[in-house]
Write a structure and sequence with these properties.
two-stranded antiparallel sheet; 252 residues; 9 helices; 63% helix; mainly alpha
Length: 252
Amino acid sequence: MTERAEQAVLDYLSRVGQATYGYLSARRRAAYLAELRSRIDDACAGTRDPEQIRRVLAQLGDPADLVARECAADPDEDAGHGGDQEDEKADGGGAVPRHAYRQPPPWRGGPDRGVFRGSDGTAVRRPAGGTSIEAVTGVLAAARTRPAEVFTVAVYLVSGIIGQIVFVWVVGAVLLVLSEVWSRFDKRVAVGIPLVATLIGMTLWRGEAPYIDQIILNSLMDTGVIGLRLAAVGCAVYLTVRITRITRSADI
């Protein structure tokens, strides 16, 4: 097989691989592509003509249609996430991706955002003030199920409000890093932003001191703590939103 012919085959297999996403699991996808490559090699045996090879690929059909036929004839159980997902056929006879109709949950912007379900299962618009009530109930639920994380949020908030104990923030940062509930992004935000805000505050200091250690100490205690307090309060608000969402997602 010439280089041009080989490239045509690889391009076709790449398009087939892209079409399998949502239909086949990673293991099944690899096996299917290997089988398809073997079928192409058998059909092209003895020829080096790129045009002939392109005709073989054309006979196999469009990659999306090829994958749809494969899945309709032999559905992949691994891609069904438990076997209870949709097995509907797309218009025209092809199979649809198993996860095609999975809607994102409301806390991630799904279709039920702004509504809740009534006793009969129908969508009902939230009443005015419902967002505030849900925020309070979300925090209370988080306090019951994840008291350590809520305590961490409280440390952030108190250290930001009460300037005399602002450096207690370090305790909250340690608790946050050690927790397995917060995501890596949450940890980076809640630890990195206060540190950056403190450094920015220190650079705004306009005082004078003869030695570098005195400059660092004085700028930290004067303007650096202001940046730290503001960032601690901001992170407390962010962490409050995150812990309520984490708690709701665990309850679904």
